Amino acid sequence: MINLCIAKSNISLPNGWRYPTERELNDSQRIQSNNRYAKVRADFNADSILDLALLLKRGVTEGFWVSISNKGSESKWILLDTIQGLISNRYNPLFMGIEIIKPGTYRYMCFDSDSTCEMIEIEKRKQITITKPSIEYFMFESASSIFFWNDEDKQFIRIWISD
What we know:
Elements: H1 22-25, E1 39-42, E2 51-58, E3 61-70, E4 73-84, E5 96-101, E6 104-108, E7 110-111, E8 126-130, E9 134-139, E10 144-150, E11 155-162
Antiparallel strand pairs: 1-2, 2-3, 3-4, 5-9, 6-8, 7-11, 9-10, 10-11
């Protein structure tokens, strides 16, 4: 039995979405994390209230959702990404993982909004300093990006750190 801290809380999930099942999280790469790389909590927008990021499912679709706090009102759900599972496959494990990124300086390839994104050597990549806890969103042994909160636009921005 997997001891998942992500399942069955009193949080209302986005309409039509559900927690992943134990089977969808029972993958050898996920055993390194108590939350199976499917849940993280941190104060992403620096308002002194913990926010919640989850990988959720709807049919064969996997969604990356964040419940972001808003001082003085209810938290709101933001959908950051979706991945389509294989329709022909009844069993669709989660493809992606999430974990906390601490504030610091990171090398990146491009912003999600850039028209091109070239893979270059790590030492030649641009650097960005992230001042708040953020979320690494990754496919095991493959592509990885960081979502960080932008105070000015009140939204998450995505940078790619590997392909």
